[in-house]
Design brief:
- The chain has a five-stranded mixed β-sheet with strand order 1-5-3-4-2.
- The chain is of the alpha/beta class and 300 residues long.
- It is 57% helix and 8% strand.
Length: 300
């Protein structure tokens, strides 16, 4: 029995993928007979760069040498054969000169097909961290009917122990990606705050994701872009970039605001909280909770 909030199809698709893992092909089908629906390929959420002839060249060469080792997944819809997962293999096979590919038929409606496509994508060894993360958040957004910002906030509050994981996201993430709420609420959420240039640098393996995670502390602009280029060209570590970011923040730090001065005064009064009783104590607890949420709302 799945937890409320998470589609039963998600866990049904996970079970189905386990069954399909070692299954041999059901048939060989002509490539031209398989219709591709781009919305069922998670990688296309990030653009078509993974499907150019150049991007498929190595895979096409492997297929020329060894053939298509892993069947593509298809489903029947009336008189059509629709691709569920394996578009890169399908296109690389055509690029390699093949006219047919091995297929496995799956019984799936649109919702289940989408779940299977996501899970098959998540299990691929060649998937880079940025693609996996952006697709993962897109998947959670669609399955939970929440915006990405709402999901990040949810993960943050679950990780902090401020709410129960009533949507079952921990189990879902661990089953699909092997990591749970803590990793996705912290490290993966930072990728959402990276610039396109930073994500591209990670995907091209020009820089480590941990380096770009340090850059998100700065506002987008020339300074942040310059630090990225320096990190790439000089091979800087995350620790070195952290120090550069800290130096930059200190050099642009504004004089202390009136609010900060008031905060100092409030800090001196906090020991008096223990003296409050009854309605005053409950009101103080409520105000402290609101202040905590303002100061630590989670990743944005």
């Amino acid at each position: 029995m799945t937890r409320p909030g998470v589609s039963a199809a998600a866990f049904g698709a996970l079970d189905m993928m386990e069954e399909l893992r070692d299954r041999s092909a059901d048939a060989q089908l002509p490539i031209a007979s398989i219709r591709v629906l781009p919305e069922f390929n998670p990688r296309r959420l990030l653009g078509d760069q993974a499907f150019t002839d150049e991007a498929l060249a190595d895979l096409a060469q492997n297929i020329r040498t060894y053939g298509v080792l892993q069947p593509v997944l298809v489903r029947r819809r009336r008189a059509e054969i629709l691709l569920v997962a394996g578009e890169r293999r399908l296109r690389a096979a055509a690029l390699a000169g093949l006219t047919q590919v091995p297929v496995i038929y799956v019984d799936a409606d649109d919702t289940r097909a989408y779940e299977i496509a996501i899970i098959e994508n998540a299990q691929r060894n060649d998937l880079d961290l940025v693609t996996e993360t952006l697709v993962g958040f897109q998947f959670l957004s669609r399955r939970l009917n929440l915006s990405t910002d709402e999901i990040v906030s949810y993960l943050h509050h679950v990780r902090k122990g401020r709410r129960e994981d009533d949507l079952g996201v921990e189990r879902l993430l661990r089953d699909m990606y092997g990591t749970g709420v803590s990793v996705w609420g912290q490290q993966r959420a930072l990728i959402l705050r990276m610039t396109a240039a930073e994500r591209d640098a990670i995907q091209a393996r020009r820089v480590d994701a941990k380096v770009c995670a340090e850059l998100v502390a700065l506002p987008e602009g020339d300074i942040r872009s310059a630090l990225l280029e320096r990190a790439v060209h000089e091979g800087l570590t995350a620790r070195q970039v952290r120090e550069l970011v800290r130096t930059e923040q200190q050099s642009t730090q504004a004089p202390r605001s009136a609010l900060a001065v008031q905060g100092d005064g409030l800090r001196r009064l906090l020991p008096r909280l223990s003296r409050l009783e009854g309605k005053d104590a409950r009101r103080a607890e409520q105000l402290l909770g609101e202040l905590r949420d303002l100061l630590d709302p989670g990743p944005r």
